[in-house]
Amino acid sequence: MSLASFNNSSLITGALLLVPILFVLYRNLTPSSSSDTTSSDSSSPSDTSEQEPKSIMQPARTDLLPPKDDPFTLNELKQYDGTTEGMPIYVSIKGTVFDVSHKSDVYGAGKSYNIFAGKDGSKGLGMSSLKTEHAVPDYSGLDEKDMKTLNDWHAFFIKRYNIVGRVSDLPDAVKDQ
């Protein structure tokens, strides 16, 4: 079957199904801080190294630059949405702006997670939603489960993408969270 035969609804459905699957795999295949403390007593360092290859998630990068604190307004962030050739692609989570350009196959124009490019889509990430109306910075209404999901995404991005700045005009409801 050729790629051209997929219609837009098939692509959207596939992308929507991919988010929760990746999240479940991430949650089940990466150690949490609480399981680290309980399992470290009964396992040797060699046991830990044997477990690492099981993760399908990309490993934390060791070549990240020191984080920057450059201010971006939500309006300024829009120009980094992956639609302009040669411009970096930025995604903001909880006001932290990440350079995701090296993953343009995922965040570039027309790609599965482009909905989050050039904006702070914290609410949508917390909800594991690819709906445009959810890709907004105000995540104040998220329940505890969705806040955990959002915090997990933020922690994931910190380990894998360069921090290039922060959003200076977040909604008041989330400014100090």
From TrEMBL:
Q: Which residues cross the membrane?
A: 6-26
Keyword annotations for this protein, in alphabetical order, are: Membrane, Transmembrane, Transmembrane helix
* Gene3D superfamilies per the UniProt record, alphabetical: Cytochrome b5-like heme/steroid binding domain
Any Pfam family hit: Cyt-b5
Which GO CC terms are listed, alphabetically? endoplasmic reticulum; membrane
* Cytoplasm is among the record's keywords: no
Q: Which GO terms describe its molecular function?
A: heme binding
Task: List all Low complexity biased stretches.
Answer: 32-48
> Which residue intervals define the domain Cytochrome b5 heme-binding in the entry?
72-168
Annotated region Disordered: where?
A: 32-69
Q: Which SUPFAM superfamilies match?
A: Cytochrome b5-like heme/steroid binding domain (SSF55856)
Q: Which domain of life is it from?
A: Eukaryota
- The question of whether Transmembrane is a record keyword is answered with yes
Give the family per the record.
Answer: Belongs to the cytochrome b5 family. MAPR subfamily.
Q: What is the protein name given in its UniProt record?
A: Cytochrome b5
Q: Which organism is it from?
A: Lentinula guzmanii
Q: What is the lineage of its organism?
A: Eukaryota, Fungi, Dikarya, Basidiomycota, Agaricomycotina
